[in-house]
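Message: Just now I want nothing more than another pair of eyes on a protein record. I am handing you a single protein, as its sequence and its fold in token form. As I understand it, each token names a local backbone shape. Take your time, and here it is.
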Amino acid sequence: MTPFTVDSITDLTGTTAVVTGANSGIGREAARILAEKGARVLMAVRDTDKGAAAARTMTGDLEVRRLDLADLGSVRSFAEEVEEPVDLLINNAGLMMPPLGRTADGFELQFGTNHLGHFALTNLLLPQIRDRVVTVSSVGHRTGVIDFEDPNWQQRPYRAMRAYAQSKLANLLFTSELQRRLTAFGSPVRAMAAHPGFAATDLLRTPQNRIVDTVEKVVLRVVGHDAEGGALPSLHAALSDLPGDTYIGPGGFLEGSGDPWPVERSRRASDPAAARRLWALSEELTGATFPLVAASASGQRVD
């Protein structure tokens, strides 16, 4: 199999892509490459000034729109303003190991932003999506456990790394259950997942966290790669002819860097019962539901 590179991407004229977190890191690189290849890119960012500054460094058809994934009101407003069909939704934005914080709706910040915000956004946009939903996870999902009784760390001492791993595991379970529902509906849309490996981006520049600083200074220099390399798995998942629910990551040492290929996920990330349970919990917390109706005479929702 030929490795996927930027040169593998053909002309994307006529394609519309939404990229969350497109003002920095791998989201910025994904947006830049898509626009350079001819796609219209909606840069969904929390800080529109930073988004505009990033867009000015790129060429192509780019539009900056405000989206705060830590605020379901902002998610709904963003979705309402996207009136055109969307070919690609790349759920890229995320937080890594911040101090304990809460979203506008009271969710733990990482679970609320990395998973619940994207869960709501995807379901709200799904009737307009024509091709792919790509959700960015992490090798950190391998240590993740979904605490269904306390997903928002209200009853137990907060552990930033465990909360991060839980949110990244949630990304993969969400992708699997979304694909199951799309298949049951008979939709041609594919739900995909990717992880960037160890990419040197602003996600890891958190001076208040000595553990992350150490990772950036030591591990990244040995097995990591730059932001463009970190964006390639997401682009591979978004643009290559692959089965739904494929998980793409770097094929190098520890999946830290190298050419993007299909990679394995953890046993917990392959649990269909957990995926369904997480979906039900996410619907309850966000109020967002799967909007498509199964193609059957009964007209029942897929669940």
Summary: The chain has one domain: 8-285. Residues 8-285 form a domain with the Rossmann fold fold (CATH 3.40.50.720). The longest strand covers residues 129-136.
